[in-house]
């Protein structure tokens, strides 16, 4: 089998672990933790390590209906409503939309996911970037992109959020935090990576 030599996403082959040197270099992704399975409505990562940025890669489905499938993030267990704001763009091939949640929620929005009304066995593919999370001189910014076969039609959304505190992020919770009981469906997975600066 031939090795993959090309760059991807603007990163060199070594950034994806190919021909990597013995020590981590800038742009290297390192696996921190992976959670799989079901039976929980949230996952908390509390050992974040020392990196420039963090990235979450998720493949998830919600056990509840569409109104309960919103996936959120929360920093350090902080649920103060004025500490978060979220907005984003989306489309389903025929309709485009935008939204702005302001600061009325005690968490930042990632977006809705595949749910019990979605096409059977479909999951949402999600990437969440948490920038400069250990910096105590500025607020934490989060960007997410996701897509899935939401309800028989494909949908993609791009969202960004901010946490209006300058404290370092020491724990990060991802989950269905405001829906009254929805959980991650069987075979859901959430992986956390650290990105060297």
CATH class: Mainly Beta
Q: Report the C-alpha radius of gyration, rounded.
A: 17 Å
What's the rounded overall pLDDT mean? 83
Q: How many domains make up the coordinates?
A: 1
**Number of helix segments?**
0
Terminal Cα span: 32 Å
Task: Indicate the CATH topology.
Answer: Jelly Rolls
The helix content, as a percent range, equals under 10%
Count all strands and give the number.
Answer: 12
Q: What about the largest sheet?
A: 8 strands, antiparallel
CATH architecture: Sandwich
Please state roughly what percent of the residues sit in beta strands, choosing from under 5%, 5-15%, 15-25%, 25-35%, 35-45% or over 45%. 35-45%
Give the helices and strands as they follow along the chain: EEEEEEEEEEEE
Spatial ordering of strands, largest sheet: 1-12-3-8-9-10-5-6
Topology of helices and strands:
Blueprint: E1 29-37, E2 42-45, E3 53-60, E4 70-75, E5 84-91, E6 96-102, E7 108-112, E8 124-131, E9 140-149, E10 154-163, E11 172-175, E12 188-195
Antiparallel strand pairs: 1-12, 2-11, 3-8, 3-12, 4-7, 4-11, 5-6, 5-10, 8-9, 9-10
What does it look like?
The protein has 197 residues and is mostly beta strands. The protein has one domain (26-195): Jelly Rolls (Sandwich). It has strands spanning 29-37, 42-45, 53-60, 70-75, 84-91, 96-102, 108-112, 124-131, 140-149, 154-163, 172-175, 188-195. It has an eight-stranded antiparallel sheet with strand order 1-12-3-8-9-10-5-6, with no helix packed on it. It has a four-stranded antiparallel sheet with strand order 2-11-4-7, with no helix packed on it. Strand 8 (124-131) and strand 9 form a beta hairpin. The protein is globular, with a radius of gyration of 17 Å. The two termini are 32 Å apart. Residues 1-22 have low confidence and may be disordered.
């Amino acid at each position: 089998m031939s090795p993959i030599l090309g760059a991807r996403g603007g990163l060199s082959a070594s950034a994806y672990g190919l021909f990597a040197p013995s020590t981590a270099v800038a742009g290297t992704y390192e696996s921190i933790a992976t959670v799989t399975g079901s039976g929980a409505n949230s996952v908390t990562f509390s050992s974040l390590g020392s990196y420039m940025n963090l990235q979450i890669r998720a493949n998830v489905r919600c056990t509840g209906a569409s109104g309960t499938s919103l996936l959120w993030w929360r920093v350090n267990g902080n649920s103060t409503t004025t500490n978060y704001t979220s907005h984003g763009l989306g489309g389903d091939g025929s309709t485009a939309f935008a939204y702005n949640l302001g600061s009325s929620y005690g968490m930042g929005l990632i977006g809705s996911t595949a749910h019990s009304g979605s096409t059977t066995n479909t999951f949402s593919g999600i990437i969440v970037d948490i920038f400069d999370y250990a910096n105590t001189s500025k607020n934490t910014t989060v960007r997410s992109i996701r897509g899935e076969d939401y309800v028989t039609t494909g949908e993609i959304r791009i969202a960004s959020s901010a946490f209006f505190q300058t404290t370092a992020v020491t724990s990060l919770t991802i989950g269905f935090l405001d829906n009254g009981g929805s959980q991650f469906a069987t075979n859901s997975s959430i992986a956390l990576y650290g990105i060297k600066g």
